[in-house]
């Protein structure tokens, strides 16, 4: 491991101050509950009704198994599946999703704020000033898998959970059409949402779930579901990953089972293009330039880069091809050889310089430098290790602070979050190191 | 000559008329092909024989494609489906109508609903009759069951209030769309018709002894599934064709292949369509016939077609799609100059800003305008904002609402005039038509008086006849639905101009655009005051859903523009506008 330089260390500390974490703040900073769902009698009634309904269903299932089987076959034909929380455990990029205290991390795209999903399905919002962190929870907001900030609106975010997608508005200021600071987007069978993506101006929301074999496109202001993207070849599994390309011209969809597809979003229509992958995609991230999509497969130590092969001739459709990039089984760095293993999640720096990787059961985050030339190369640059022993990374994200600096946020399994400020000097230093001694 | 022409001929440009007609023909053609597919499926079920496969397939082909009898019988179905499609086209393009009360809406929408019901019953009944010609056991049951399917479909889809056209977020190729529609509709029909078919057969069993043949239930169910699925598919196919991409350009000029674009020839379009279908029935490019005839509609032309509401809404969606797609070369044309060194943007800008101006004017006419400064809060204003809180603050008990007056004779403005004339009674009208009109108006007045004094004692019934304070504003907001997309598109163009506008084509209009958007937002804020409780209105007034959508999209667009142009705001010379923008930007950032 190479420790950050002294100058960078100072800046890192500053960056950490911006987002107080549970471990940093101790007992002094208690999240402020701004929406208490249990006060609402309607919510209590809903919960009671849901419990009774589940009990009835269990009895019915036990008594008429053949009828239930027929109904489930019909639902499968309609693209509705019956996932469980167990499936969600394997369906997210977070390792040990059901055990870790922090399940997801989402830095704000414009401000120095951060949203954290805790193990108790609460969403904690940390600000860059003296304000208390805000805690957002709801009775139906369970098995939360992701949080995404809405572009062009400062204080709106979407939460993907088992019931569907919760849209939380400018808490305390605005009210939605439904008269409350939040509303649920739900559709028949669209349960256990795994990934949520906004389009460029935040007018469309795309969501993938384990409960349906198709992706839904929502009008979030209206609260209505307007379209569904069918999976090619009638694949009867749910979806795990959705990723808009940086210019919003492609959307990548990876299934829970084998297979992935790419939709081209033109001004005329959406065109489907299949990507031939042999296994199930574990994690995916676009390069900031939008030319490459980095992919890691389940139970594989290899990293791939998918790229679009276009033709100079008119009428020839572009094709997406995946190319082997690097085998991460054993990575030499700093005079040592690191046994990295299976990559669990990928994060790409918005400046297109760094790639951060976390690995299954490994207590470090590996930072690579992207060398965008032909062929594309990855050079090991740094390793970030936890300040507390026994911790392993659960989530890693980049966010840009200024034009030249970016922040690397890492959530650890011990419940603390570390933020590293990567300045241009830091980048240059690493580049110089690598330039002098290129990796073998 | 123009006086005798219908309104749509005068108000809709010829190219748009031809385009809509082409779409109607195309959709009806697709539905006609669908009939053959469905009949084929039905025959597969009816003539199913395990042992004799070749005979089975022969039977299916003989009775579908190679039968003049089938073709002749099918014409009745095509007529019904064609009329239904026509009604769907009309509904799609109809502008929202202003109804003062709910009762007025019910009465005026009744003829349209009844027409749709009649057409659906006809299609259902005739389909039942059509299928019964191919299965001996389905003589009567399928007729009644077809009627039931038509009625059930009407209750499910068209019973409720007219839903405004919903534009799809994503448009797919025709092959994917039709496959998806057919699959989903078939599954839906399977579920919907299962219990009714069982019920019908049980009822039939009590009157006849047809259950000697158990396959009848299967035939009945399959006929019901096909009829219901057909009705669902037909509606969705018309929707898909209506929402096909419009052949829009920023400016009419040269065609990409170098020839001058010209007006469309409908005959050529249909001929090209037929040729395309013979070669490849599900071509990825369903606009065949349009490319060949080089039809181009300018964005400004399409957006200014107020007569066709659905078309205008679609043009707004296409405008938004064009400008928000970074791969599209069309958007780049906005920022370019043509051969005469004129910007094509100016025409488009004029149309958009004119639409926004018109909306502001309409809203000014129906919403309260602030007359005093917002800082001063008088007792009256406190009461207006929250009556309950103001009363609590002042320690006043709530007022008892006045008891409604019980009058037998209520004078309406028009009625007073007639009463005065009764002093000098006119001779009995010789014209029968005038007499009937007089009678109808008298009965209307009498009915109103009776309803107001006797029936309206119930709160729920009262709502049918009371006009909402917001009804006029709601109507204007519904008419302004295309603006939701246009405003977002306009903001996107402005944001893109930061990097792409080399000649300053769009940026010279920024001040005006900011001004108008701020004004639109102000009008929407004013409209919200209509919902505040007052002493006069006992019923709470609510604004339409389009209000929220418009407000959210305007706010988001303004925020996005301010975020993009924040560092350059000082270039705006208008001090008042600059202050407003700065204040807004400050509020946006200091959340």
From TrEMBL, chain A:
A biological process term (GO) from this entry: nucleocytoplasmic transport
GO cellular component, as recorded: nuclear pore
Highest rank taxon of the organism: Eukaryota
Polar residues composition bias: residue spans: 19-29
Residue ranges crossing the lipid bilayer per the database entry: none
Region Disordered, residue ranges: 1-29
Name this protein carries in UniProt: Aladin
From TrEMBL, chain B:
A GO cellular-component term linked to this record: nuclear membrane
Entry-linked InterPro entries: Nucleoporin_prot_Ndc1/Nup
Domain of life: Eukaryota
Keywords: Membrane, mRNA transport, Nuclear pore complex, Nucleus, Protein transport, Translocation, Transmembrane, Transmembrane helix, Transport
Main location: nucleus
Transmembrane portions of the chain: 24-48, 68-89, 110-132, 138-155, 193-211
Single GO MF descriptor: protein-macromolecule adaptor activity
Membrane topology: Multi-pass membrane protein
Gene Ontology BP terms: mRNA transport; nuclear pore organization; protein transport
Compartment(s) where it occurs, according to its Swiss-Prot or TrEMBL record: Nucleus membrane; Nucleus, Nuclear pore complex
Family: Belongs to the NDC1 family.
PANTHER family (alphabetical): NUCLEOPORIN NDC1
Official protein name in the record: Nucleoporin Ndc1
Species, as recorded: Drosophila lebanonensis (Fruit fly)
Name of encoding gene: LOC115623020
């Amino acid at each position: 491991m190479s420790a950050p330089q002294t100058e960078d260390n100072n800046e890192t500390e500053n960056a950490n101050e911006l987002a107080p974490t549970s471990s940093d703040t101790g007992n002094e900073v208690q999240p402020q509950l701004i929406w208490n769902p249990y006060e609402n009698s309607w919510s209590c009634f809903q919960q009671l009704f849901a419990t009774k309904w589940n009990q009835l269903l269990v009895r019915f299932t036990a008594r008429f198994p053949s009828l239930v089987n027929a109904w489930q076959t019909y639902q499968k034909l309609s693209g509705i599946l019956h996932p469980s929380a167990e499936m969600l455990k394997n369906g997210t990029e977070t390792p040990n999703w059901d055990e870790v205290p922090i399940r997801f991390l989402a830095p704000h795209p414009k401000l120095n704020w951060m949203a954290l999903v805790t193990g108790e399905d609460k969403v904690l919002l940390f600000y860059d000033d003296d304000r208390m962190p805000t805690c957002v929870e709801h009775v139906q907001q369970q098995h939360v898998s992701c949080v995404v900030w809405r572009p062009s609106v400062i204080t709106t975010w979407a939460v993907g959970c088992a019931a569907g997608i919760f849209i939380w508005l400018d808490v305390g200021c605005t009210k939605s059409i439904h008269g409350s600071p939040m509303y649920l987007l739900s559709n028949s069978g669209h349960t256990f949402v795994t990934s949520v993506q906004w389009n460029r101006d935040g007018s469309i929301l795309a969501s993938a779930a384990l409960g349906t074999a198709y992706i839904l496109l929502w009008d979030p202001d209206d609260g209505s579901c307007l379209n569904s993207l069918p999976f090619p070849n009638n694949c009867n599994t749910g979806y795990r990953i959705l990723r808009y390309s940086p210019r919003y011209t492609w959307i990548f969809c990876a299934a829970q089972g084998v297979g992935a597809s790419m939709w081209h979003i033109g001004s005329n229509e959406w065109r489907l293009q299949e990507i031939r992958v042999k296994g199930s995609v574990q994690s995916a991230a676009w390069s900031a330039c939008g030319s490459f999509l980095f992919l890691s497969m389940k139970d594989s130590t290899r990293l791939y880069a998918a790229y679009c092969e276009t033709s100079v001739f008119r009428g020839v459709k572009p094709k997406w091809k995946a190319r082997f990039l690097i085998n991460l089984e054993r990575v030499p760095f700093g005079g040592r050889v690191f046994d990295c293993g299976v990559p669990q999640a990928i994060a790409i720096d918005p400046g297109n310089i760094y790639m951060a990787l976390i690995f299954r059961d490994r207590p470090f985050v590996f930072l690579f430098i992207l060398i965008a030339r032909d062929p594309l190369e990855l050079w090991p640059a740094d390793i970030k290790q936890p300040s507390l022993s026994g911790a392993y990374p659960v989530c890693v994200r980049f966010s840009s602070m200024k034009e030249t600096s970016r922040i690397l946020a890492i959530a650890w399994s011990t419940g603390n979050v570390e933020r590293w400020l990567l300045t241009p000097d830091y980048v240059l230093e690493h580049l110089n190191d690598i330039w002098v001694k290129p990796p073998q | 000559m123009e006086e005798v022409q219908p309104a749509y001929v005068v108000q809709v440009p010829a190219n748009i008329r031809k385009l809509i007609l082409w779409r109607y023909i195309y959709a009806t053609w697709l539905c006609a092909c669908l009939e053959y597919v469905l009949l084929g499926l039905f025959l597969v079920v009816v003539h199913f024989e395990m042992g004799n496969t070749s005979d089975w397939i022969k039977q299916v082909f003989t009775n579908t494609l190679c039968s003049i009898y089938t073709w002749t019988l099918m014409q009745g179905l095509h007529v019904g489906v064609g009329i239904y499609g026509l009604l769907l086209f009309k509904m799609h393009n109809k502008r929202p109508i202003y109804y003062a009360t709910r009762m007025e809406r019910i009465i005026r929408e009744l003829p349209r609903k009844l027409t749709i019901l009649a057409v659906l019953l006809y299609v259902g009944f005739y389909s039942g009759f059509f299928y019964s010609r191919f299965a001996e056991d389905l003589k009567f049951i399928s007729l009644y069951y077809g009627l039931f399917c038509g009625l059930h479909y009407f209750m499910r889809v068209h019973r409720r209030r007219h839903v405004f056209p919903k534009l799809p977020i994503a448009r797919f190729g025709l092959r994917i769309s039709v496959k998806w529609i057919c699959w989903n509709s078939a599954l839906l029909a399977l579920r919907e018709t299962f219990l009714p078919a069982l019920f019908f057969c049980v009822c039939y069993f009590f009157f006849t002894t047809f259950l000697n043949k158990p396959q009848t239930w299967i035939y009945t169910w399959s006929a019901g599934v096909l009829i219901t699925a057909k009705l669902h598919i037909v509606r969705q196919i018309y929707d898909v064709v209506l929402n096909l991409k419009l052949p829009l350009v920023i400016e009419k000029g040269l065609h990409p292949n170098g020839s001058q674009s010209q007006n469309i020839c409908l005959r050529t379009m249909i001929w090209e369509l037929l040729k395309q279908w013979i070669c490849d029935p599900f071509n990825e490019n369903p606009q065949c016939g349009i490319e060949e005839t080089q039809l181009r509609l300018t964005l400004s032309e399409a957006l200014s077609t107020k007569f066709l509401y659905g078309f205008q809404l679609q043009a707004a969606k296409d405008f938004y799609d064009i400008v928000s797609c970074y791969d599209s070369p069309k958007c780049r044309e906005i920022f370019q100059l043509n051969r005469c060194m004129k910007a094509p943007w100016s025409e488009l800008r004029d149309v958009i800003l004119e639409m926004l101006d018109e909306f502001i004017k309409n809203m000014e006419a129906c919403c309260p305008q602030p007359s005093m400064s917002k800082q001063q809060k008088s007792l009256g204003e406190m009461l207006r904002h929250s009556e309950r809180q103001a009363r609590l603050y002042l320690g006043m008990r709530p007022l008892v609402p006045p008891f409604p007056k019980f009058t037998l004779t209520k004078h309406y403005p028009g009625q007073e005039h007639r009463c005065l004339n009764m002093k000098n009674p006119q001779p009995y009208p010789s014209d029968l038509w005038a007499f009937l009109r007089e009678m109808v108006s008298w009965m209307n007045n009498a009915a109103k008086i009776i309803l107001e004094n006797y029936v309206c004692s119930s709160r729920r019934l009262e709502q049918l006849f009371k006009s909402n304070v917001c009804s006029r504003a709601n109507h204007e907001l519904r008419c302004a639905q295309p603006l939701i997309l246009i405003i977002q598109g306009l903001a996107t163009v402005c944001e893109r101009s930061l990097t792409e506008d080399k000649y300053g084509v769009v940026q010279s209009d920024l001040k005006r655009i900011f001004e108008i958007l701020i004004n639109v937002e102000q009008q929407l804020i004013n409209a919200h005051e209509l919902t505040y409780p007052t002493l006069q209105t006992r019923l709470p007034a609510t604004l339409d859903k389009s209000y929220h959508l418009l407000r959210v999209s305007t706010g988001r667009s303004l925020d996005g523009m301010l975020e993009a142009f924040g560092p350059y705001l000082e270039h705006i010379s208008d001090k008042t506008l600059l202050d407003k923008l700065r204040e807004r930007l400050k509020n946006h950032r200091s959340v």
